[in-house]
Amino acid sequence: MPQDGRVNVRHSGFGFHSFPLCGIIHHSSFLRSALPRIVSRPRSFLQYWLPVLLWMGVIFSASGDTKSFERSSRIIAPLVRFFFPRLQDATVDQIVFLVRKCAHLTEYGVMAVLFWRALRKPARGPPRPWVWTEARMAILLVALYATSDEFHQLFVPSRQALVTDVMIDMTGGIAGLLLLWGAGRALKKW
Q: Which residues of 25-43 are buried (b: 16+ CB within 10 A; e: fewer)?
């Protein structure tokens, strides 16, 4: 066996003139160059995609809550009655409904920004220009998740799946990205 750790198999019928033992000794320079890429993938996942998955989990758990309307009503309605004690119950219910729909807008606006961030993977250095294809992809992912969330609600007692909720969710996603774009323009980030 040669001193460099290789086995000579030229005459063994394999057709290779040598191969490394265990693939490590001969290709150690390859491993040194590939290791940062291998290690950076989990770091990239944790930094960009884990927040998306956690936020999706928050939305999923909220949409699976069978008493979500009663719980939010117990918080919002007393506040409304405290500030506006003479409002009729029907008006208070409408305000609670409106606040809940605004929560949809907000949670999906946050989701769109998180998707955009994961797709873009912002880097240090000079600002990169805004890319509308990244924003469109983020909106598409929001639409897909909103649709799956409404489908999930078909199987939750006391919840209903509504196409209008998907539209509200998409509107929230679009609004979130437009706010991000506007803030980036104002701050000269793109």
A: eeeeeeeeeeeeeeeeeee
